[in-house]
Design a protein that fits this description.
Elements: E1 7-9, E2 21-27, H1 30-40, H2 45-48, H3 50-54, H4 65-78, E3 86-94, E4 103-113, E5 118-126, E6 132-141, E7 148-150
Antiparallel strand pairs: 1-7, 2-4, 3-6, 4-5, 5-6
Length: 161
């Protein structure tokens, strides 16, 4: 599913076919990690304190599991089905830690179309080395009307340290 970086276009329920795929990628930066902690309230030291994290089985700071989950949400909301999608269910299995500067790619694959515009989508998240970090399935209500929208411009956010 291709689209302009400045536009968001959805795929309607009627257009979706079993087997359709789409991808969405993002890199975990220090700022993203800190912002996720701030907005989620999850200040577990394994995410934020290098000294503490060094004493864990991971030996270094790792991302919040739900940061990876939020990328699945972003992929569903912006790529497939895209704008107008309503998230109904999600199951996730966290397979390996995500580290600072990892680039994750979410691959969505349509598994089934159900009644009342419901779509079941496999969610596979891999790091830049091709290793699976998260797997799962989502159920969404796909939009019924075609939309093409300007991608919103988000405000610049600065972090005081």
């Amino acid at each position: 599913m291709d689209q302009s970086p400045e536009q968001l276009k959805n795929v309607t329920y009627d257009e979706i076919q079993v087997g359709d795929t789409a991808t969405f990628s993002r890199t975990l930066t220090e700022d993203e990690l800190v912002l996720f902690a701030a907005v989620s309230g999850d200040v577990n030291p394994v995410h934020l304190d290098a000294e503490f994290a060094a004493g864990t089985l991971f030996k270094e700071r790792i991302a919040h599991g739900m940061w990876s989950g939020s990328l699945v949400s972003a992929a569903l909301a912006t790529v497939l089905p895209g704008p107008g999608t309503i998230y109904l269910e999600q199951d996730l299995a966290f397979k390996r830690p995500v580290k600072l500067n990892d680039t994750l790619t979410v691959t969505l694959t349509v598994l089934a179309k159900e009644a009342r515009n419901r779509v079941v989508i496999r969610c596979d998240v891999r790091n830049q080395g091709g290793q699976t970090v998260v797997t799962g399935e989502a159920k969404v209500m796909a939009p019924t009307e075609s939309l093409t929208l300007a991608k919103p411009r988000l405000p610049k956010i600065t972090i005081e340290r």
